[in-house]
Q: What sequence folds into this?
């Protein structure tokens, strides 16, 4: 980022079973010594998006956190919330014994049992917690690289503390809890020198009847984003789109993709859940994104029979299992305003290793 500014959007699970290197440690290694993170955005409360927050806060100073504030009785949420309050909001650290009792009580009970460590709510400029402050889509933004001639702007386009009850009918009852956590995801657009990346968290955009259809109407999070764009509240158009919900079938509706009009789409997929779904990937093709510009962080991995390798000449039958963490994707927004450079960090000559 310009002027040695640093933005982190989500910090989740480790990358390699054999070498349990955390996301936080990879971020720390990529930054110069002594530098602080200007903005840490936590899209929502699922562990694959926040489980390394405590570790990151131990490694780096974070000046501002943006989060939904949606409370969970999970270990990853409790640790993240506690250390944000201690290190970001200048709360007084508890003794080791009290801290251990507090974390244990949180993970064992139905509801988190944290006692605020400092006067709440904290300043919006420090802990932008949507439990206390309502996000103003398109208006809430942060300047990165202040004082330089080439500032980057992070604009918040969506984010909620709880899902509106009017959205309940979009999802099957057995999926309602997980969808309600995903639908409130904080969506943010980073712009630098006229080029942009759209971060979407686990946003959802299709109801249970439309998940298998190419042209199903957008609902929930993506429906809100489509309306906001059409109302000129903000601009969705972005050069690079980090695909909603890892490329899940319950997101990535066609009209949303068309309005973003990305030159590149990236599926932050892992070894589980068969992400990206074949139908979701086909929507990107329908929207005009070339297959060669559909990148995924699990290239060559064993995603399951419902997925597809949308790179090179892979076919649905060429399932294999390569090393985790070898498919990092690098996005460079160039300081001359030219087209972004998007590539795999490592080249692959064969699908599997």
A:
């Amino acid at each position: 980022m310009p002027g040695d500014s640093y933005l982190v959007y989500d910090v989740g699970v480790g990358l390699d079973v054999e070498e349990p290197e955390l996301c936080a440690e990879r971020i720390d290694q990529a930054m110069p010594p002594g530098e602080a993170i200007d903005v840490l955005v936590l899209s929502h409360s699922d562990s694959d998006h926040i489980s390394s927050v405590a570790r990151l806060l131990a490694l780096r100073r974070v000046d501002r956190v943006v989060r939904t504030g949606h409370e969970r009785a999970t270990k990853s949420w409790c640790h993240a919330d506690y250390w944000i309050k201690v290190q970001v909001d200048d709360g007084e650290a508890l003794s080791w014994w009290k801290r251990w009792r507090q974390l244990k009580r949180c993970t064992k009970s139905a509801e988190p049992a944290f006692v605020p460590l400092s006067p709440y709510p904290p300043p919006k400029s420090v802990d932008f917690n949507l439990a206390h402050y309502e996000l103003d889509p398109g208006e809430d933004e942060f300047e990165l690289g202040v004082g330089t001639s080439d500032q980057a702007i992070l604009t918040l386009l969506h984010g909620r503390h709880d899902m509106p009850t009017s959205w309940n009918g979009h999802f099957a009852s057995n999926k309602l809890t997980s969808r309600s956590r995903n639908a409130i995801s904080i969506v943010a657009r980073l712009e630098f020198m006229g080029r942009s990346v759209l971060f979407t968290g686990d946003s959802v955009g299709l109801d249970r009847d439309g998940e298998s259809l190419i042209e199903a109407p957008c609902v929930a999070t993506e429906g809100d984003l489509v309306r906001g764009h059409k109302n000129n509240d903000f601009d969705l158009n972005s050069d690079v789109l980090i695909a909603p919900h890892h490329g899940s079938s319950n997101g990535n509706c066609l009209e949303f993709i068309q309005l973003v009009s990305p030159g590149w789409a990236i599926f932050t997929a892992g070894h589980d859940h068969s992400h990206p779904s074949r139908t979701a990937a086909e929507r990107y093709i329908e929207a005009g994104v070339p297959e060669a510009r559909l990148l995924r962080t699990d290239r060559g991995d064993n995603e399951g029979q419902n997925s597809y390798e949308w790179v090179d000449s892979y076919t649905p039958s060429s399932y294999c299992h390569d090393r985790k963490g070898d498919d990092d994707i690098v996005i460079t927004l160039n300081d001359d305003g030219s087209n972004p450079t998007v590539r795999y960090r490592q080249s692959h000559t064969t699908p599997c290793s």
In short: The two ends are 34 Å apart (CA to CA). The mean pLDDT is 83.
